[in-house]
Amino acid sequence: MSKTLYNEAYLDEYVELVIRHGVNIQKGQELLISCPADCAYFARKAMAVAFEAGASNVHLRWSDDICARTKFLKADDKVFDTFPAWDKLMMESLSEGGAAFLSVVAQDPEVFKGVAPDRLSRFNKASSVALKPYFEKIITGGVRWSIAAVPSEAWAKKVFPNAGSAEDSMKSLWESIFNAVRVSGDGKAVDKWGAHKDALRRRVKLLNDYHFESIHLKNSAGTDLVMKLPKTHLWTGGGDVAKDGFEFLPNIPTEEIFSAPQFDGVDGTVVGTMPNVFRGNLIDEYSITFKDGKVVSYDAKVGKEHLEGMINDIKNMDYLGEIALVEHDSPISNMGILFYNTLYDENASCHLALGSAYPDCIKGGGAMSEEERKAAGINVCDSHHDFMFGSADMSIVGTTASGEKVTVFENGNFAI
Ligand code: ZN
Ligand code: ZN
Q1: From ligand 1's centre to the CA of 77, what distance in Å?
Q2: pLDDT tens-digit readout, 356-378
Q3: What is the Cα–Cα distance from 171 to 20, expressed in whole angstroms?
């Protein structure tokens, strides 16, 4: 590359943020970095910082969009019903051994366009079955993990199609990422993150004090959804604390405050307001209708077969597991960029997730069995996928145990 695609000092600060606060690596701990081969320069820096922070060993799990696509197009059909035993063993032995997990994402949003949906669907099923023990550790805080994005040419071109050269779009995406993760501008990112986490936690406390029995979400795009919340639900946001007592940031950036719906207490329709990327394909202009928590109908103008896969591939993906509140007037939303990447787009919009609830969204949930979680009212599933429905006119009204109605969101922003 002839031009400098990123500000080197910003990149160093971003890597420090990801390693020391994202996965919050501790002395003597192992780290697995899952990284696209094109982003090797990022993994090299991350490994160096991890060792400086005291990591005992750092492992790499490389990937490549083009190889993954070639495999989906050309491999023997029966391959997609299996998950490699060595890969399952690696994820299990590292997670059981207390390693931290960093995922670097850079995916072309439409990398698997044209691949037979059946192959994607079967592999989605096979990997969720194989990785269940690892996934359980992820959602219960049994390991510290973090997801951070690094531009790739294909992704940057999708976000900035009119930027000129591939290098110009990469540069624009880097600038947007540094901005969103609070690395650019005045001051140290770590200090800014401290203030940001405090601000999120203040609102978390307010919502937990109200302890709504239900919330009603409505906007002019067509969303009209009434959602009961479990008796012992908790709102959370601004990072997480793992079972070992250390804080971590599962997502960098994070702007959301979230909880879990009563899995069988959701009625009405939600209309998506941003394209959604699922298994390397786009789903757009879609709606989903729920009755007693279960998906009863759905439609999409783009990628309906992938929405169908999202809902039907894995057991209990036809119930909701997350409700997350993000103001329309918030830093990433105000950038006005459609990132075609859930890590970024979900932090610009109120969103829901189909599939598993995070057990920490109910009191004591992290120590509960799957049966106990279900009995406490949250969905249990071997997968989780977010989709965005926020808008500038989103209204959310909460109802308390005494029947009091409280406006939580008005015109897309918090009213409390
Ligand atoms: Zn979320
Ligand atoms: Zn989610």
Answers
A1: 34
A2: 999 999 999 999 999 999 999 99
A3: 25
Question: Is the Cβ–Cβ distance between 274 and 267 less than 8 Å?
Answer: no
- Cα of 258 vs centre of ligand 2, distance in Å, is 9
pLDDT in tens, 273-282: 999 999 999 9
Residues with Cβ within 8 Å of 198's Cβ and at least 6 positions away in sequence, in order, are 238
Question: Can you tell me the mean pLDDT for 104-113?
Answer: 96
Q: Each residue of 121-159: pLDDT tens digit?
A: 999 999 999 999 999 999 999 999 999 999 999 999 999
Region 254-261: mean pLDDT is: 97
What's the CA-to-centroid distance between 346 and ligand 1, angstroms? 6
Residue 408, pLDDT above cutoff 80: yes
Cα-to-centroid distance, 6 and ligand 2 (Å): 29
